[in-house]
Write a structure and sequence with these properties.
The chain is of the alpha/beta class. The chain has 2 domains: about 140 residues, 3-Layer(aba) Sandwich (Rossmann fold), CATH 3.40.50; about 60 residues, DNA polymerase, domain 1 (Orthogonal Bundle). It is built from 9 helices and 8 strands. The mean pLDDT is about 95.
């Protein structure tokens, strides 16, 4: 039985529209101008503190100044309830159900805070498929540090696992965790695919069960 550990944003779900909406809500509530979707998408992937610092910097404020904490707290509160805009990538549910039927153990590790991550996962109907979810505030470190992935492996009870993600952070996480990296090419990656270390790539989730079924361990 193979364990698969997934990233969330940009891998299983397109969360950028939801994050864009929440980010603009916390900014405009304080009189700042709204930001574009592309700009906010570029801030996604390194956790809520990073996102808040980027938002503050984008409107000309000190990213570590007195506005950081209230903006962060407002963002987290909204994150847990304002979940519209989180959508599944095509074929995700079918692929996950096929993997579960194959006996694969599934987990999510995300830099999104734990409770907002659970809310987003439930909104798109994935909560039934993932017994293990580790958020960006679940442990003292975040990705690309390997501890979240290693904790997921421990909870799933597997020494061997594949890591599935979409971004530069995910590639670095897989290297740090010592896991083969399967990259979904339609997410939030900015770097050319051939510049990122990966064991396999896929652009359609229909291909993922086959990749896993025929995976050869060294």
């Amino acid at each position: 039985m193979t364990a698969l550990i997934f990233d969330l944003d940009g891998t299983l779900i397109d969360s950028a529209p939801a994050i864009h909406s929440v980010s603009n809500a916390v900014l405009t509530a304080r009189g700042y101008p709204a930001l574009s979707l592309d700009e906010v998408r570029g801030y996604v992937g390194k956790g809520a503190p990073h996102l808040v610092r980027c938002l503050l910097q984008s409107v000309g404020e000190n990213p570590d100044g007195p506005l950081f904490q209230p903006l962060h707290d407002d963002l987290i509160t909204r994150y847990e309830t304002e979940v519209e805009g989180n959508t599944l990538y095509p074929g995700v549910v079918q692929a996950l159900e096929a993997l579960a039927a194959m006996g694969c153990a599934l987990a999510i590790t995300t830099n999104k805070p734990y409770r907002p991550a659970l809310a987003a996962i439930a909104h798109v109907g994935l909560d039934r498929l993932f017994p293990v979810v580790i958020g960006g505030d679940s442990l003292p470190t975040r990705k690309p540090a390997p501890e979240m992935v290693h904790e997921a492996q421990r909870l799933l009870g597997h020494d061997r696992a594949l890591y599935v993600g979409d971004s530069e952070i995910d590639a670095e996480t897989a290297v740090n965790a010592g896991l083969p990296f399967l990259i979904y090419t339609e997410g939030y990656r900015k770097t050319p695919l051939d510049a990122l270390p990966h064991a396999a790539s896929f652009s359609d989730f229909k291909a993922l069960p086959g990749l896993v079924e025929h995976w050869t361990w060294p």
